[in-house]
Amino acid sequence: MGDTGIQVGPEPLTFAEVVAVARDGARVTLTGEALKAITEARAAIEELASRPTPVYGVSTGFGALATRHIALELRAQLQLNIVRSHAAGSGPEVEREVVRALMLLRLHTLATGRTGVQPATAQAFAALLNAGITPIVHEHGSLGCSGDLAPLAHCALALIGEGQVRDAGGDLRDAADALAEAGIEPVTLGAKEGLALLNGTDGMLGMLVMAIQDLRRLFTAADLATAMTVEALLGTDRVFAADLQELRPHPGQAVSAANLRALLADSPIMASHRGPDCTRVQDAYSLRCAPQVNGAARDTLAHAELVASRELASAVDNPVVLPDGRVESNGNFHGAPVAYVLDFLAVPTADVASMSERRTDRLLDKARSFGLPPFLADDPGVDSGLMIAQYTQAAIVSDLKRHAVPSSADSIPSSAMQEDHVSMGWNAARKLRRAVDGLTQVIAIEIMAAARALELRPPLRPGPATGAVVAKLRERVPGPGPDRYLAPEIAAATELVRDGSLVAAAESVTGPLA
């Protein structure tokens, strides 16, 4: 567990705070302002619950069963039943970081004072996070409207001491035992609380926030891979000039081109073919147009960040408790805003990977690599070099193109047609996570190939920035030589891309890259 504490109140969480809790185990604390807002909203719910007038989720059934008025003596059972019945997920376990992000974001909505839960319920939710107790949430079960119902229900189930969880050590436990060991009292749900714990877009939003953080790093790594390949293929950097890029003033394009100029600065290889004898006036699109593609990916990411920031400032529940005490039904639980950008991000993720694979293929093709050995092999024919590493890239890219097909364009009605249009945002988030992982591997393989190619250009040496990257890679991945077991090397390179080590090596020369 991390030592850094995150204050959870009505104000929006930051991207960094979500990641700190989800991935680094940062502790959470409800602010005094949050507890005051929760207490005031709870009073409004208690007052409404005492009235004879039906209020959705307080004194009625749910979804298509909302027309039934629930007698006072059955209302505690009503809230318990919604948690148990909605915890209907199926398939593999969802990753711990996703569940922790989901829990944090639901806690934030509780902290806005718009849901009407008891203060003790919100405090117990925070205690689960701080104890490192992670409810078992399954891959399938959310339609992204009314929020991530089944995933959130599995979290609520743990809160009442039922179902299964993983403890801080990762061991599978009965929730009741894990709570008892952590000194957490199971929650007894009051009016509306079961519904309030379930009705949000928290899972898809948590996955969006983490994907945005990952893609920021990966798009910089894609520029790094591009620069190494341009250098290794004796390409030209003149096309990355600022005045050329300004003719088409997309912000992301300018950033990508600036990265490429910095990464290729002072390169002996680039300088070696700038003279009048050089006939290379135009490179292939996968080299020449990299700022346009990597830049457009950045601009797409910026739009996704805007949507995510708005969601982090939201209180998603139905019904909600308004500041004047009214409790009103609404449609804010619909996942469309998040689902669309999750799908949108999958498109440039696939395309950046596709361009990376095309550059790698050029490095390995004797007819297009300008003097490099076939497949960068030590003894071509006896050795296959990186031939099959490119196959791996191609397989991943093909899969990424499939993941670029939108989930949010689909809708399957549910709840006897009461919920007749849904976002499928959870599915969009799940496939984006797989796409981010795939892009990481594709970029890693290009960097492996480009590093080997740069070392096969003696007596010329790579530039200071790309040379620093090659040196960092060589700490984990050997250089050119006879064929060897490649899978561990790909895994090592992938981890160096994922954790930012290779970009950091370049930045030790260039300064911060964007």
UniProtKB/TrEMBL annotation:
This enzyme catalyses: L-histidine = trans-urocanate + NH4(+)
Specify the domain of life of the species encoding this protein. Bacteria
Tell me the residues on which 2,3-didehydroalanine (Ser) occurs: S146
Entry EC no(s)? 4.3.1.3
User: What are the GO BP annotations of this UniProt entry?
Assistant: L-histidine catabolic process to glutamate and formamide; L-histidine catabolic process to glutamate and formate
Q: In which pathway does it act?
A: Amino-acid degradation; L-histidine degradation into L-glutamate; N-formimidoyl-L-glutamate from L-histidine: step 1/3
**Family, similarity comment:** Belongs to the PAL/histidase family.
This protein is called: Histidine ammonia-lyase
Q: Which organism encodes this protein?
A: Actinomadura harenae
The coding gene here is hutH
